[in-house]
Write a structure and sequence with these properties.
The complex is a heterotetramer, with 2 copies of chain A and 2 copies of chain B. Chain A is mainly α. Chain A is 71% helix and 0% strand. In chain B, helix 3 (109-124) links the parallel strand 5 and strand 6 (129-134). Classes of the chains: A mainly alpha, B alpha/beta. The complex binds adenosine-5'-diphosphate (2 copies) and magnesium ion (4 copies). One magnesium ion is lined by residues 28, 32-33, 35-36, 75, 171 of chain A.
């Protein structure tokens, strides 16, 4: 994956979010405070504008821009996504990066999010999609496309599984049983992100 | 009943107010507009820098406490919302002169998260950063210790004043952080409201009270408190708060305290002063000495009609730090 | 809608608040309980003494401005009622050290009468007394010059600050009085309210406004103003007040002014700061320079939701006096 | 008139006020703000207590005590009466005083009240009873009893005449024609005071 692949990945992610924004907002309305779609839109809008205005060489350059956009956003998800991308950027400073680099970025990103947010897998948060995606990449043996496809599938099924969980962290923890059966919007957003990597 | 405010676009309240504040104190403050933070007009050198911040709507907190003897930078978020991690990290690296930075953070999930991230980022850029988490609000304490812990309220002003003075004396970062945490451990606050405030641009107060009720244990974000109690005389209401605070800090005969009688927004100076009289007399009745007091609006909750009382254990060292010179828009001596 | 306050017996609000205020500032203030007045904790010598006073309910005025560089004594009446002549004369003779006493009096019939009598009595007892009558409120100006004249409002703080500094420099009584009167002549204020306040112990505000109206030209005693105008943005409301003030003082390009953006009680710091921004920008647009500003609660009208804007012509002498050190509960630099 | 005569005069004035308090309040309710009775009661209550607690020798000592009590009172009438009594006290410092002394005290007191309050005779204020009483004393040729009786009659008719006047000063000036036909309470109080001097 080189710099322009990374750009295209982000472009597909923006487009996927545009399609799913309303769904994500509805999920946060049922499990949190309903601003997840708006928080993400402002972060991604800022990312899109900044990428358009910035020369980037390596994938890391691209992810730095996206990280900054998220870190300039309020809410809980903004700064956590920002730190996830920041770790991904640190692992992808070469002009062309491979599965091992991505795996390291995903893994470091996930552990940073866990450390900062205090959520463990199973707490019904974005971590429930991040962690399986990182594991899938780390375990991948084939080429980058197969690895990313495996990661995307893992993220999606992690996100799907959040429906059954009771939230332990974030606002959803305040509503308890009411959120049972509802997907966690942060985890769904992670699934969209990793799926977008597959082209 | 509907409230109105003096404002233009509700979205622009915070940047416009920051501009207006800094224009009123050109000799004390500088505004960095993007990302938004306020620093001293004359940066300090050769000392640990102090950075605080949090949601707006609590004015004069925090920008009103930037200046000699107190903060080096304040980072304002939107009304009742944390500043972003990059705002905080930008302010942190801007005021670091190599001695490191002490971040003073009120205990709210968003603030804690963004300051923690900011500390990591500033750390990556070479700044030594330590944090003091302020969690003085007794009303939000849970017996089982679960949940996000006590909220940070008016004790933050005392922490900023005392740490600010200690930093000015050249104390090193680890000692400052340790000292700040000790002060926090010895600080408890509790709030009480007669009427809720309203968000800029909103015309209804956040909640209504019956005529014979007051809201006990309110925070500084317009949340309801931990319960209602009957409206009563200022002396009785003061006694209710003091009983809890004194018990929580285990204060007794011979102890000394700093007192903050803090307006939550719309409470008049006459009311604050007479509540301060009650605090003083009631503590004296328990043999507790008021070492120093602050009486006024320090940590507000928009235009809430209410007040909070903060007690912080005082000793000779802390009193000397309290008395050290301070020169900020909202606190000067 | 009903208001409540933190108070005990409404009859005792003023003495209790005075006690609470002085307990908060033991290093600055002393309370004489009977007759009631507040003096500096460390009396000044070798200078003309400054005495002001008036009804209570305007806190921090006047007791909040007692201290080095400002007043020597403040004499509080009941809420919105003049102090008695003997209170004022007692305070006047108490602070006279032989250089004479300047009384700063807001223009209200009761205050004028009682201060005038107090001046005669203190004069009989050997004190040289001069008076400066503060009458800055543009809203109460009558074209025919009839009636009691303009009311005294927030310009009194500027007069007390500048005269206080001049007295500290050793100026003699006649010069001080002349200077004070010149400052008053160059000062105009105007107030605007979004909601009335309520008297201690009373639960209804003094008057109600429609949702789309603001009250223009309010005074500081809860009176209605000179009329209503549509509610509008802070920028527009500021422009309305500034137009009148600038015209009344005949200000133009190249002039400099002191600005006071004063909370009438319940107006939040965010609102005051963004109105100050508007004042600053609009005056700059007219080529008028803001020399110095005060933004905050200085002369309140209980818990009225409103503010006043004061402009006072500034020149180099006055700016130097403004910048001279001051050390009082409510104003220190 | 000696010190104990002056005390007795004040005692009769207090008693007369007790009888007429309600009437005076009603008059102020119709021409002003209705607090005249309460203002006077607090001043006279204070005067009574202070006289009981104070040794006095000369009439001037007695009037000083009463003056102080009035000057410690709010409202408009309190300080004006206080200064009137203060002038009377200055003129009556001898152990025994005569008509000339009283005439000087009344005259100085009236002009002080006029100077401070800015009211002229005919403005429907206490001055309308004070001024004729002072003139009557100044013009008196007989003994002190006749002189005081003449002053009392003059004060009373001055007070009665206020009914016909339109107020120019004080709160009554705000109500205009509405107060026409109503006596000025301050002037009535002056009549009671001077009548009390006659025993
Ligand atoms: N402590 C946490 N750790 C990891 N992820 C979290 C945590 N708290 C919340 N989240 C994620 O953030 C999402 C909500 O984001 P957002 O709406 O921006 O936050 P907020 O709760 O501040 O409104 C949740 O769906 C969840 O995935
Ligand atoms: N300017 C004045 N000069 C002389 N007497 C006055 C003046 N204004 C009011 N008075 C007298 O005071 C009386 C009212 O006294 P009071 O009720 O104590 O005053 P207030 O108007 O302050 O309530 C009037 O009846 C009148 O006789
Ligand atoms: Mg949310
Ligand atoms: Mg949210
Ligand atoms: Mg009256
Ligand atoms: Mg009255």
């Amino acid at each position: 994956m080189n710099g322009s692949d990374a750009r295209e990945w982000m472009g597909r992610f923006f487009a996927a979010f545009d399609r799913e924004q309303q769904t994500l907002t509805d999920l946060d309305r049922r499990t949190g405070d309903g601003d997840f779609g708006a928080n993400l839109r402002s972060a991604l809008g800022r990312a899109r504008t900044a990428l358009d205005a910035t020369e980037t060489a390596t994938p890391g350059d691209v992810f730095d821009v996206v990280s900054t956009a998220f870190l300039n956003t309020g809410g809980t998800s903004g700064p956590l996504f920002g730190m996830w991308f920041r770790n991904l950027a640190k692992a992808t400073r070469a002009p062309t990066v491979g599965v091992a680099d991505l795996a390291r970025g995903f893994t470091d990103g996930t552990s940073t999010v866990q450390r900062l947010g205090g959520a463990k897998p199973g707490d019904k948060t974005m971590v429930d999609a991040m962690a399986p995606a990182a594991e899938a990449l780390a375990a991948a043996t084939g080429g980058i496309h197969e690895a990313l496809a495996a990661a995307a599938a893992a993220a999606r099924s992690g996100a799907e599984a959040t429906a059954e969980l009771l939230a332990k962290r974030g606002r959803a923890s305040y509503v308890g049983e009411v959120a049972r059966g509802v997907l966690d919007p942060g985890a769904v957003a992670v699934a969209l992100l990793v799926e977008a990597a597959c082209g | 009943m509907s409230r109105r405010q003096f404002l233009n676009d509700p979205e622009h309240v915070v940047p416009e107010a920051l501009e207006g504040l800094v224009l009123a104190h050109p000799g004390l403050l500088r505004l960095n507009p993007e990302p938004a933070y306020v620093t001293r007009a004359k940066p300090a050198t050769g000392k640990v820098a102090l950075v605080s911040g949090g949601g707006s709507g609590h004015e004069p907190l925090h920008a009103g406490f930037v200046g000699t003897g107190m903060l080096d930078a304040a980072v304002p978020g939107a009304v009742f919302a944390s500043p972003t991690a990059l705002q905080v990290s930008a302010a942190t690296t801007a005021v670091d002169t190599g001695q490191g930075v002490l971040q003073i953070v009120k205990n709210y999930t968003g603030d804690v998260l963004n300051f923690r991230i900011a500390a990591e980022i500033a750390g990556d850029e070479g700044a030594a950063v330590e944090q003091v988490l302020v969690d003085d609000d007794l009303a939000s304490e849970r017996a089982d210790g679960e949940g996000p812990g006590r909220r940070g309220t008016a004790a933050v002003v005392v922490v900023e004043k005392l740490c600010g003075a200690l930093a000015e004396q050249g104390a090193e970062l680890p000692r400052l952080a340790r000292f700040g945490r000790e002060v926090v451990g010895d600080a408890r606050s509790m709030g009480i409201a007669l009427a809720a405030g309203a968000h800029p641009g909103e015309r209804a107060p956040a909640w209504e009270l019956a005529d014979d009720e007051v809201e006990l244990g309110v925070g500084i974000h317009g949340e309801r408190g931990i319960g209602r109690r009957p409206y009563a005389s200022a002396d009785e209401l003061t006694a209710d708060l003091l009983d809890r605070l004194v018990a929580a800090l285990g204060l007794g005969r011979g102890d000394g305290v700093f007192v903050v009688v803090n307006s939550l927004g719309a409470t008049h100076g006459l009311e604050l002063a007479l509540v301060h009289r009650a605090v003083h007399r009631q503590l004296a009745g328990r043999g507790i000495e008021v070492a120093r007091s602050l009486v006024g609006p320090y940590v507000t909750s928009l235009d809430m009609a209410g007040l909070s009382i903060t007690l912080v254990r005082a000793d000779d060292t802390r009193v000397a730090l309290w008395d050290a010179p301070v020169r900020t828009p909202a606190l000067t001596w």
